[in-house]
Design brief:
The protein has 404 residues and is of the alpha/beta class. It contains 13 helices and 16 strands. It comes from Oceanobacillus locisalsi.
């Protein structure tokens, strides 16, 4: 589509309203404004591409932005809608304009009754300008008049410094990377840094692109306070009922909680089973100066483990690996000796927990590099200085509901 066709016929610009649902009340809290254009064939064309295209003159993009935002705010006032409106701007364009077009629009409507606390300016981390000082200055002014700031992340790991500086009210992340055949909880770490930072700076997480049950579950597990996507609602030209999604979302949350409770129960049951078996065999197995006693221990636990090894309190492996050979016989694999596992996440935290609680710990799911499969590890304190680790295979976990 030629941008000039839009410029000469601005009246064919249509604002659509994409609902944003708040988790705590399961109600529509606001809308993201999306621009469409009704072409000569009476087909509605979405214009996201236009606002981020630097080859289109600034004046044109500013005019289209202004027209769409103006129509959306007029509707908000006419319908007495008290929720939030999210209005998008290319951050680089915003800075070149010094925010004047947007700020003048807000002040004009403020005189007509617009509550600026219900306006959210959305920008993308990929469009942030080189002149961050000027941008930060404008953002600070908008905050003083009540406008909230939302930053959409395309690169979660690369934008943390900018988030810490800008202190947005909302951080928007995309769930579309998560496919239906993947396990959502394995990908929480993708946004772990963002989630931690959002808590520290007081920003809420908004998950967009939710097109499936699994993606909604991922957003819920990841601490999302706001949700957006076709699985819940579609963009429309009118505002919808505030409780449009309430019944469905309430039921989804109930299912999520039930599953998490079942998973927690299954993990505790596994802990009891493993602890009972291991404690029993440890008490009956005479320890020898070498590692041969671990072979007898492995034989007693072979229903649920595929590897055993011992580390000391600084992460150094002080035993061989006990694993099965190709014929199914337990063997001592000496190459595991003296490996250092202190680099593993949570290693020392878990060591301290075992010392304090005097009991074993079951790890989260993770991928074992040598086997390329999902496993869990059960760690158990032999003493204040030695800890035994039992690797539990996927084949066992998949048979137990709630362990994956």
């Amino acid at each position: 589509m030629d941008p000039l066709d839009i410029l000469i016929d601005l009246e064919q610009l249509l604002p659509y309203y994409k609902p944003i649902i708040r988790a705590d009340k399961q109600l529509v809290s606001g809308y993201e404004v999306i621009a469409y254009f009704l072409d000569e064939n009476q087909k509605e064309q979405r214009l996201d591409w236009l606002f981020d295209d630097p080859s289109i003159p600034d004046e044109f993009r500013l005019e289209v932005n202004h027209y769409i935002h103006q129509k959306a705010i007029k509707k908000k006032l006419q319908d007495n809608f008290t929720g939030n409106l999210t209005l998008y701007y290319d951050a680089a364009l915003f800075v070149r304009d010094n925010g004047e077009t947007f700020i003048h629009l807000l002040h004009d409507f403020q005189e007509k009754g617009l509550d600026l606390n219900t306006i959210i300016l959305e920008i993308k981390d990929t469009c942030l300008p080189e002149n961050t000082n000027q941008f930060i200055h404008i953002i600070k002014y908008l905050k003083t008049i009540g406008v909230q700031i939302s930053i959409e992340l395309a690169n979660p790991s690369g934008s943390l410094n900018q988030l810490a500086i800008l202190h947005p009210s909302l951080i928007k992340v995309d769930t579309s990377f998560l496919k239906d055949d993947l396990l959502p909880h394995l990908y929480k770490d993708v946004y772990f840094g963002v989630s931690m930072l959002s808590r520290k700076i007081g920003a809420s997480l908004l998950f967009k692109g939710i097109r499936s049950y699994k993606q909604l579950n991922f957003a819920w597990q990841s601490g999302g306070e706001y949700y957006q996507g076709s699985y819940l609602t579609h963009p429309q030209q009118d505002f919808i009922e505030e409780d449009f999604c309430k019944n469905d979302l309430t039921e989804y949350f109930r299912e999520f909680v039930t599953y998490e409770q079942q998973k927690a129960k299954a993990q505790y049951e596994l802990l009891d089973t493993v602890y009972g078996t291991i404690d029993g065999f440890l008490s009956r197995t005479k320890r020898t100066p070498d590692d041969t006693w671990l072979l007898r221990l492995a034989e007693g636990c072979e229903n649920f483990i595929f590897r055993i090894y011992i580390c000391n309190s600084v992460g150094l492996q002080v035993s061989a690996n006990v694993e099965k050979d190709g014929e199914g016989n337990w063997m001592l694999m000496e190459e595991g000796m003296h490996k250092n596992w202190s680099w593993r996440p949570y290693f020392f935290e878990n060591i301290m927990r075992m010392n304090m609680e005097k009991k074993g710990i079951l790890s989260d799911l993770y991928t074992d590099i040598s086997r390329s499969e999902l496993i869990r590890t059960y760690a158990y304190p032999l003493s204040q200085e030695r800890y035994i680790f039992f690797d539990i295979p996927y084949s066992y976990l998949i048979e137990k509901e709630g362990l994956l």
